[in-house]
């Protein structure tokens, strides 16, 4: 094909538009149109304390104010939930302003007594529902505040007591438990400051709360059971879903 001056002038604007569009288009995540999971995880992580990064992420993608992440076993946490249980008012208010739906937990942290009372009155027993990582509603309220005093007066807004573990029981738990040949098919049970922790290779450690007879539930997952017997670890959710043998 032969190009003359008129032909070039005719296609030049279109060519410029195409080049400009290509240069200005952002790189799409493989999960598009779903937002990138790594961004959701980062948003929830930084919402515990890093307000500068929270501002940057919300400015870049406002919908991240509503981000949530499963830390393990269904221990879902939202960005606002992270700010709420760490008592970070500034981050919580920023997230709510950006579109994060307020919750009973955020209201407790923010000292909104009327809201807390109304939600519990409308949903009897709601004060017993744990938040992310099994953190109680009472623990979200500032000690000495009217919300804390009100929740404390209910008698059941705090964390339920755990069954004690003897030293012998505690010492029987640590080790590597395997359920396959792949490097990731391993579970490490460790004890950190007297607290058993469950870590699958490549994931985040999860605290285990003792219910009695070496039966535990993972943090944030009260319906899940992790049992130990005869050097075997079994996960029930609620039916048995995994059995691993101790090396």
Give the secondary structure arrangement, pairings included.
Layout: H1 5-24, H2 37-46, H3 51-60, E1 68-70, E2 76-78, H4 79-85, H5 89-97, H6 104-109, H7 113-122, H8 137-140, H9 146-154, H10 167-172, E3 175-178, E4 186-192, E5 195-200, E6 206-212, E7 215-218, E8 225-229, E9 232-236, E10 240-246
Antiparallel strand pairs: 1-2, 3-4, 3-10, 4-5, 5-6, 6-7, 7-8, 8-9, 9-10
What structural class should be given to the helix and strand makeup? Answer: alpha+beta
Distance N to C terminus: 73 Å
Q: Uncertain regions: pLDDT < 50 for 5+ in a row?
A: 1-24
Describe the strand arrangement of the main beta sheet, using strand numbers: 3-4-5-6-7-8-9-10
- What is the residue-averaged pLDDT? 91
The count of helical stretches stands at 10
Measured by DSSP, the beta-strand proportion falls in 15-25%
Q: Characterize the largest beta sheet: strand count, sense, and whether it forms a barrel.
A: 8 strands, antiparallel, barrel
Helix content: 25-40%
- The CATH homologous superfamily of the largest domain is named Ankyrin repeat-containing domain
């Amino acid at each position: 094909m032969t190009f003359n001056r008129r032909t070039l002038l005719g296609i030049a604007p279109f060519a410029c538009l195409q080049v400009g569009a290509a240069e200005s288009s952002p790189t799409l995540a493989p999960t598009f149109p779903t937002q990138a999971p790594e961004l959701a995880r980062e948003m929830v992580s930084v919402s515990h304390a890093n307000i500068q990064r929270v501002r940057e992420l919300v400015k870049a993608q406002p919908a991240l104010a509503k981000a949530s992440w499963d830390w393990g076993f269904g221990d879902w946490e939202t960005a606002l939930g992270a700010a709420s249980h760490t008592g970070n008012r500034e981050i919580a208010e920023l997230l709510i302003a950006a579109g994060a739906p307020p919750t009973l937990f955020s209201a407790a942290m923010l000292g909104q007594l009327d809201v807390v009372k109304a939600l519990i009155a409308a949903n009897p027993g709601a004060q017993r529902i744990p938040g992310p990582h099994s953190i109680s509603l009472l623990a979200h309220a500032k000690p000495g505040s009217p919300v804390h005093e009100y929740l404390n007066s209910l008698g059941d807004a705090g964390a339920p007591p755990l069954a004690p573990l003897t030293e012998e029981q505690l010492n029987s738990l640590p080790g590597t438990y395997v359920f396959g040949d792949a490097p990731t098919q391993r579970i490490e049970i460790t004890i950190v400051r007297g607290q058993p922790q469950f870590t699958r290779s490549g994931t985040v450690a999860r605290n285990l709360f003792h219910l009695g007879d070496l039966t535990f539930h993972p943090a944030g997952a009260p319906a899940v059971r992790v049992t130990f017997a005869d050097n075997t670890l079994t996960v029930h959710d609620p039916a048995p879903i995994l059995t691993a043998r101790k090396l």
